[in-house]
């Protein structure tokens, strides 16, 4: 599988040495080796020296000619998202397509469905097809591995979520700040027991929104009750079941913050089924202002993300990497906006 030559082409003297072997010898990730070889300023001097020592010891020589031919040969960008049914991602991909098309690139979309195995298969396909670059919404902050792309020098930019185990560019919103603002809005409406329906906490997005909710409670001087936080896994059914659990509490919430749009659909269905009115019985706030696209009531207060802008900026960043432009690792954090509507306003 490793096809990056280590010695001079045609010489037949030196066996192939791959980035993975260099990484193993240096005790670092293949992504870190790529950063060192591309003269990234984000690698510490100690790691850089270990990598360069391994390069010298193994006799590794990156085949810049082959890398250049690969870049010229493909004009395809891969986009691997975590849930194709979520309008957030489809709106974001529109921003990707517009920028890619203007630059002469095509886009191939893959749905990992929050499944690490499916995600890995798509990453391997992107590597085998020698795609120019990949935009990735990782299923896990710690378990997702992009080594298969790093070995081949294929650049990656993560969107909506970050990877903790790799030094890559990313574009996302300030989830912590947005969730804190939404929680404080519910406090301002008189809510004192605010339920929170969390997403996948193995992602930086899910963890960031939960941390923002708790920060909002602390800022308001309210306790963070364990029973008021229920995971809905970013799914409609999960949102419905989580809401049912919260409504079954002896002292049920007077406010509810749902941390993505799909779970908000499930939450509204559960509230309607139980005959619980919002905002009279419970003040409701969602995350992702995509309610009309989901045939959900448009009067729901929600955090609105700049979905198109996320896709646009991430693609522009990826194309700079594809072109070989050297620059330090970029982290772009965009602001989200709380759009206040009837579902959370109390007299």
TrEMBL record:
Name of the protein: LacI family transcriptional regulator
Annotated ranges, domain HTH lacI-type: 17-71
This protein's UniProt keywords: DNA-binding, Transcription, Transcription regulation
Gene3D superfamilies in the cross-refs: 3.40.50.2300, lambda repressor-like DNA-binding domains (1.10.260.40)
Provenance organism: Actinoallomurus iriomotensis
Superkingdom as given in the UniProt entry: Bacteria
GO molecular function, one term: transcription cis-regulatory region binding
């Amino acid at each position: 599988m490793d096809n990056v030559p280590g010695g001079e082409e045609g010489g037949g003297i030196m066996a192939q040495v791959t980035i993975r072997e260099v990484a193993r010898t240096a005790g670092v990730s293949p992504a870190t080796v790529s950063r060192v070889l591309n003269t990234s300023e984000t690698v510490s001097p100690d790691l850089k020296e270990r990598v360069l020592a391994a390069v010298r010891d193994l006799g590794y020589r990156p085949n810049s000619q082959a890398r250049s031919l690969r870049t010229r040969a493909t004009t395809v960008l891969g986009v691997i998202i975590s849930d194709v049914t979520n309008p957030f991602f489809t709106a974001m991909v529109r921003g990707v397509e517009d920028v890619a098309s203007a630059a002469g690139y095509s886009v191939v979309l893959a749905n990992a469905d929050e499944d690490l195995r499916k995600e890995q298969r798509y990453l391997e396909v992107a590597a085998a097809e020698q795609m120019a670059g990949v935009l990735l919404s990782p299923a896990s902050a710690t378990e997702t591995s992009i080594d298969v792309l790093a070995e081949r020098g294929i650049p990656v930019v993560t969107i909506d979520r970050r990877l903790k185990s790799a030094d890559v560019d990313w574009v996302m919103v300030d989830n912590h700040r947005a969730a804190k603002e939404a929680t404080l809005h519910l406090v301002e409406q008189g809510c004192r027991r605010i339920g929170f329906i969390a997403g996948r906490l193995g992602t930086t997005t899910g963890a960031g929104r939960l941390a923002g909710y708790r920060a909002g409670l602390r800022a308001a001087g309210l306790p963070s009750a364990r029973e008021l936080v229920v995971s809905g896994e970013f799914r409609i059914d999960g949102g419905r079941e989580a809401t049912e659990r919260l409504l079954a509490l002896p002292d049920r919430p007077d406010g509810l913050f749902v941390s993505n749009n799909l779970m908000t659909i499930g939450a509204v269905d559960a509230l309607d089924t139980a005959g619980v009115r919002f905002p009279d019985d419970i003040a409701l706030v969602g995350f992702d202002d995509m309610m009309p696209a989901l045939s959900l009531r448009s009067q729901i207060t929600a955090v609105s993300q700049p979905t198109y802008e996320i896709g646009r900026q991430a693609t522009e960043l990826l194309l700079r990497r594809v072109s070989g432009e050297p620059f330090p690792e970029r982290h772009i954090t965009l602001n989200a906006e709380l759009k206040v509507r009837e579902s959370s306003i109390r007299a």
